[in-house]
Amino acid sequence: MRSLHDILEEYEFLEGDERYRLLIELGRELEDMPQPLKTDATLVRGCSAQVWVYPTGDAGQLHFLADSNAAITKGIVALVISAVQDKPASEVAAMDVTAALEPFDLKNQLSSNRTQGVPNMIALVKEHAARIATA
Questions:
Q1: Cα separation of 32 and 133, whole Å?
Q2: Cα separation of 68 and 78, whole Å?
Q3: Left, alpha or beta for 32 (phi > 0: left; psi -120 to 50: alpha)?
Q4: Fewest CB within 10 A of the end CB: N or C in the chain?
Q5: CA distances, 124 to each of 13, 101, 130, 131 (Å)
Q6: Does domain 4-134 have CATH number 3.90.1010.10?
Q7: Which of 30, 47, 70, 81 is catalytic?
Q8: Going by DSSP bridges, is the β-strand pair 51-58/61-68 parallel, antiparallel, or unpaired?
Q9: Is the pTM of this model over 0.70?
Q10: pLDDT digit string (tens) for 75-110?
């Protein structure tokens, strides 16, 4: 998975539809999430599309599997995951993921339907990180 910094460098050079294509490409690059993990327990609430996030790893290195049934939403999921993937749980728990995603200006680039679940996705990732970090 590309780093958020590398994705942003490419994203800044693109405009309009090219940015959509990049998001779709990022979604395709997500590690496959096995179908049995796509359950009600891993479903992110509040998203217009279906989004699943499954945490793995340990306090030293969190790892997330994620998927969506919508291409652009899956790309947004990939952005969120790239901000936190394979980092220590304590770092993710303390991280301002929303601020890390601000340079992408998703609220102005995409419809509110596509971004409405992002805060819930971030909250789920941070809650898991905090739980693992304090365990």
A1: 26
A2: 10
A3: beta
A4: C
A5: 31, 16, 10, 11
A6: yes
A7: 47
A8: antiparallel
A9: yes
A10: 999 999 999 999 999 999 999 999 999 999 887 777
